[in-house]
Amino acid sequence: MHAALHGGVVYDDWDGALTQTELGKNANKFIRVQLVQLGGPSGPIYMHRRWGRVGEAGQLMKALEGPYDAERAIGEFQQYIKSKTGHKWEQRHGQPTAKPGKYAFLEMEEDEDVAAKQLAAATDAQVASPAGSATGARPVRTAPCSLEEPTQVLVELIFKQETLAGAMRELDVDTARLPLGALSRAQIARGEAALCALEDAIASTAGVAQLQALTSAFYTAIPHDCGRSKPPLLSSQEAIDRKWEMLGTLADIDAANRMAADAKQQAVNAAANAAANASAPPRAHPCDDCYRQLECTLTLLAPGAGGAGASELNCIETYVRATAERSSNGQLPKLLHAWRADRRGDDERFAAHGHLANRRLLWHGTNVAVVAVRARAHFPRFPRRPSPTRPCCPHLPPLTLLLLLLPAPAAPTSRPSPCSSSS
């Protein structure tokens, strides 16, 4: 921000982000425009602009635009937006089609806590928790965690900030250096629409010019930091699948952040209640708060426990041995822990396919950062496959993976399976 505007605040919601990508011209640009008010609610208002190539800090205007009163400032802002996009500011939420040679609106995450978590994940930063952090505040009593130790470790892992950071680094989109902030769910949906158009074009063997235009639309919706190089053309289904995977992970991380934010808010509310009421019961353990957000019952399968749990554990161990491949050092994988996940809505989903007798257990390799969302019964369009060179769980101990094993109906086959599933 311009040095003269330090200490100012954005006036109402007059804060716009614009992008433009044109592969043919190697253009990959952004503009950030804001109305900034100085000196309190009755102070003067200035229009601040920053622009440049995506992934770079960009340039600042040399001279301030203002001071204006509110009416004049809003008029200047709206006129500038219209000149750059060809659309009115009020149309920004309607996903207007970007006009040739013009910028497109970029819709940012408005939930400050979720945005802070997403950006902190991208930069390995830490988000301060306000619960019990006030100087001189009475310590808040916290109940012991009610989860078994392996389950507590698992829940802490999938909500850990460093876990989300690793997932963000695996994505092609560089939100760590993106000058515009966290993308909203609506903006991610625009990227999905652009990929659908690209898939249709590839299926119809479209020409290079059309693919360039559609690829430019995707990068305009989902800004990528490509340095000074031209953003790569998306001309194959393999490239499209990789972007689907990327958007799915971005959306899942957004959902996981919202779950963590809800758990954090519960902790804040409990701390406030404890501060106001000395006889208030201890607040729930933070891990228990996160576990409740999963809306999923995780049952640790222990060896020697007997019953259905022991049978399931034996089945999984059999499946690991039957489908395992040796690592680069010749070792076979060893099962450390296994959980039964009873997710909300599973009974209804299984019942819909109850008439199918042929079932198989499928390994679902996924990024550990989005396991929380998987537990809430959501699976992506393109599941990840575990790879020895690119493990799905970079924040687990070396050579350790976290995989999901899913029962699925299959077409009739005479090939035997290691074990079957009845649920």
Descriptive report:
- The chain has helices at 70-85, 112-123, 149-158, 161-170, 185-203, 208-221, 237-276, 286-294, 307-323, 346-351, 371-375; strands spanning 9-22, 27-37, 45-53, 59-60, 65-68, 104-105, 296-300, 339-343, 359-365, 403-409.
- By secondary structure, it is α+β, with helices and mostly antiparallel strands.
- The strands form 3 sheets. Strands 1, 2, 3, 4, 5 and 6 form a 6-stranded antiparallel β-sheet that branches. A two-stranded antiparallel sheet has the order 7-8.
- Helix 5 runs antiparallel to helix 6 and helix 7 (237-276) crosses helix 8.
Question: What is the fold's blueprint, element by element?
Answer:
Blueprint: E1 9-22, E2 27-37, E3 45-53, E4 59-60, E5 65-68, H1 70-85, E6 104-105, H2 112-123, H3 149-158, H4 161-170, H5 185-203, H6 208-221, H7 237-276, H8 286-294, E7 296-300, H9 307-323, E8 339-343, H10 346-351, E9 359-365, H11 371-375, E10 403-409
Antiparallel strand pairs: 1-2, 1-6, 2-3, 3-4, 3-5, 7-8, 9-10
The overall pLDDT average reads: 76
Percent strand equals 15-25%
> How many beta-strand segments?
10
Distance between the termini: 57 Å
Radius of gyration of CA atoms, rounded to a whole number: 25 Å
Biggest sheet descriptor: 6 strands, antiparallel
The helical percent reads 25-40%
Q: Specify the number of helices.
A: 11
Q: What's the order of the H and E elements?
A: EEEEEHEHHHHHHHEHEHEHE
Uncertain ranges? 121-137, 176-180, 380-395, 414-423
Question: What global shape is seen?
Answer: globular
Q: What structural class results from the helix and strand content? A: alpha+beta
